[in-house]
Amino acid sequence: APLHSKPQAVITFPGELLSAPSDVELAESYLLRFGYIQEAEARRSSKHVSLAKALRRMQKQLGLEETGELDASTLEAMRAPRCGVPDVGG
Amino acid sequence: FLTFQGDLKWDHMDLTYRVMNYSPDLDRAVIDDAFQRAFKVWSDVTPLTFTQIYSGEADIMIMFGSQEHGDGYPFDGKDGLLAHAFPPGSGIQGDAHFDDDEFWTLGTGLEVKTRYGNANGASCHFPFVFEGRSYSRCITEGRTDGMLWCATTASYDADKTYGFCPSELLYTTGGNSDGSPCVFPFIFDGTSYDTCTTDGRSDGYRWCATTANFDQDKKYGFCPNRDTAVIGGNSQGDPCVFPFTFLGQSYSACTNQGRQDGKLWCATTSNYDTDKKWGFCPDRGYSIFLVAAHEFGHSLGLDHSSVREALMYPMYSYVQDFQLHEDDVQGIQYLYGRGSGPEPTPPAPLPTEEPQPMPTEAGSASTTEEEEETPEPTAEPSPVDPSRDACIERNFDAITEINGELHFFKNGKYWIHSSFWKSGIRGAFSIADTWPGLPAVIDAAFQDVLTKRIFFFAGRQFWVFSGKNAVGPRGIEKLGIGKEAGRITGALQRGRGKVLLFSGEHYWRLDVKVQTVDKGYPRATDDVFTGVPLDARNVFLYQDKYHFCRDSFYWRMTPRYQVDRVGYIKYDLLQCP
User: By the CB < 8 Å criterion, does A11 face chain B?
Assistant: First the structure.
């Protein structure tokens, strides 16, 4: 065990992203990667509308409460280890 | 459940799979076993069968890789994406890929399978007590050769059972060195290396040379991960180095200092501050069995389910006593049907046929001294039932080469197939007519190269035939084969006077002349015959190559122990239409 009791500073480890993605960035990349939102769709619609619709779709598919919001359980699901096959689409 | 668009499915039920490479996290046998169990999840509820092959293109090709691994769908380092698979079809379709930046286990943490020692390959027991101290990792204490070992029970002091831990000093995997250990230092590209390296590779796998000079000998293998190997970071597979210095402080164990996410990590050199080499410490890992069972569901045509408890739900969760969910069963049976349930009971033996007239003298003019000394029994016997077709048999009790021709035995009958005869298969002949006194069901047979006598095995008895004259039955314990052996599944002649007898996952070497097995046996079949099924139903020598049969397939192995063909017994050996 470490010999000190003082908390160390948080550092960025080489090979890791400089900063963790924000919740919205995480949600966008998740919804895109697993087929809940198409790139073209994301560009066309206003971000908020598009995200809410896709979030509902994702929440329904994964058996979560369909809030259309980026709530804690949705974020937890997005951070969970999973299969790389898209949930929607080819 | 969901299926892929268009209900993509296989157009045949007897699927093959091939494991292209193995993760260094787990012993190869553990991975093979996990994949086998994962396929069984699906074959238990459908008519599908799965057979592992070792060369050529299989329906389902399985590989480990990291980041971009050749299919345009990159993995993402530790955690996150674990694996993916493609729906049924040719080429990459049906294939399953596993992210080797994950820590692959059986779901409950480090699985360290030992080799050698006296624990028969058991896994390490952590923690274990050695000389009064408790250890939770493999150690070199108590040895002078630096080899890592562990106890396989809670106390070495009490039980004295141990084995050696995975280490590049013990063996390598893959490559071209048949598992030989690393040789340190070795020269690669003019540089000397004292440890395994990823230099010269783009896939991040650690390798070493198995001679002192790779540039000259080109002999190499991949390094198995040690129990202290890190996952991810920038030193994947390298062992933690304790103590290490981080921000001026010394650490003798994995720490979460410096991180926001609380994950444990360690340095892989003695000083993180100067070298910046690090990785995550082993955690519970992900069950290769559970992830594989899910991915193989995709390979068979199932898409993700929205039922949280179903195997095909996209998120990973560990369950100890896995049972396939009804949703998964409905999904797979929608595609392939329910299967036929348990194996049908074999039919009762046919009534004994009328005795057939037998030729009274040998029909072949043999000229060799050996054959004259112990004349072969028969000319061609008359078929007792020409209508009974070998091609409709699902398997055979025994297969062996007698006088250069393959003999297939089943339930009181046998057929002969010769590659030199255009007529193909002859028979069915009666075993009782040709070898009176043998039981209807025999397990194995071989012809002694020297004397041409034929040895038959059934249960724990054996018979030796010279012509129609038999000695036996005698118990196989007379040969020195103990009660640990079940049925003898086959025999391989090894030069003059020695024959390997197989039973279960072991084999014995029989000295045919003195009719006892040699000292030092039994041995584990997979120590030498690597890549063939260990639960082979029949083992025999044919045209100087070893053949191991399971289900409808045979694995052919060269005398240099390389599997050079996997084929169908019916179509390739019997040449059925």
Answer: yes
